[in-house]
Amino acid sequence: MNILGISAYYHDSAVALVQSGTIVAAAQEERFSRKKHDARFPRHALGYCLDAAGLSLADIDDVVFYDKPLVKFERLLETYLAYAPHGLRSFMAAMPVWLKEKLYLKSTLKQELAALGGVAEKDLPPLLFAQHHQSHAASAFYPSPFEEAAVLCLDGVGEWATTTVWRGRGNRLEPLWEIDFPHSLGLLYSAFTYYTGFKVNSGEYKLMGLAPYGEPRYVDLILHHLIDLKDDGTFRLDMQYFNYCTGLTMTNKRFDRLFGGAPRTAETDLTQREMDIAASIQKVTEEVVLRLGKTIRQETGIERLCLAGGVALNCVANGELLRSGVFKDIWIQPAAGDAGGALGAALVAWYDKYDRPRPLTAGDCMFGSYLGPDYPADEIRRQLEAAGARYEELDEVTLVERVADLLAAQQVVGWHQGRMEFGPRALGARSILGDPRAPKMQSVMNLKIKYRESFRPFAPSVLAERVGDYFELDRPSPYMLLVAPVTEQLRIAMTPEQERLFGIDRLNVSRSRLPAITHVDYSARIQTVHRETNPRYHALLTRFNDKTGCAVLVNTSFNVRGEPVVCTPADAYRCFMRTGMDYLAVGNFLLAKASQPAPVGDDSWKQEFALD
Question: What does the similarity note say (predicted)?
Fold first, then answer.
């Protein structure tokens, strides 16, 4: 039985294919269209999923959309009516799109599917609709390794719900309670993303990365004015300070007065004020998540927790919750945002509609989240030659040996191997790699390769069997969704003069013997690498460790600022040639920048990537 799940039309369109309960393929549309956060109908991702399984649309038993548009439209209308006459501009901006497209989404989906499959609409498989948070919960629980777990979903908003709690047992998910719009932890965090000058729905991770440079001076102000946080973690926002219900911005003039000024203009200098604001909202977010976790544990008595929704990508909050000991273990869906809703929707049909048994495995059922396309050697060669690339073709052992030598010599290597990751994190399939011991590696990779803000931290990949040697973490973190401190023996104590530094001045102070992956608060966002799910990346880390005594690499996503992560070998080559990367490894092909025909050092193209 073949079930397709689809998320689309809001942000991060994606498709997932579940075949007799097994996750066969999943991918975001942006990777194929090259438009970041592409929200259009995911025709390329759908075509990939069908091709990956050798299927046509005629072989599909059900197509499941990840939320219920009519219920979302009801929320939109009720919100505008509740705030009338305010919000007329926002109402007028939203209505044409709804009346033309989203209100008739069932017909639109059928038209798109029929056109893609070359069939009449009457011959399409049944089209089903799951609830938004039901899709999130299903994506979190069903692939997890737990027979029973509590499930917490936190995001901006679905149809009405912004926070939901579920009980998962076997092949069933039971909703327990929810918090509804407009009271939303995700929208609160996005409001501060907007206020500090970053882009909503994509810049939240920048706000999280900025937080350690500041002091949480505004926590009491936020708790006193913006959010009424109860002891049990439930909350209500004071909507006098927010504009997202009726306006075209997230915050308003009252919010500005509360924090002493207008929102930061994008791309202007970051000040200590923005850093302190980031630290404050991050601290409040962690407190909300921790209180909710304690309440869920008390109410359900369940020792394990699954997380999904956009807020579940806040790996700092995830790490705090894990270290609190409230739960024995937690599992986070690697595609926790709307893209993962496509997977959850397909799983809802398999377990809810068909009531199929749910098998449990020693690990999870995500296959390391390597669910996207891969490319055979002939196709890699064809794409490289079409681009005029010059390369060496090696066997796998030689390739791993050469790349390990290059990394040990502090060269920066693009690493395009196997199936592409599903979700926002690069996990060693579409990654840029570097030596974490190099003091300047963070600034080099940020400014000369990623073309992004210098404060942004890089994540470490570490051999799973060695994680405890480097980080205060006693379990796997395969999806880079947990932050933990580096071990005491790796840390470098700060001098009294360094202790007095503030803000970005802290950036140039090495905090550990792995300075490129250690954030200013001695933390790191960790990916454990497992031989079972990514044997080639595990082999590379092993050889790097053999040569250097270090079982850690810098791992950042294979893209530049403003672009999606690369998908094809041709994408990888273009990104390689437009950056300061030294080498590129695509499959068994190794390319040196100095050997390429395009002139090296022509920086005129950099302006293309100067802004988000």
Answer: Belongs to the NodU/CmcH family.
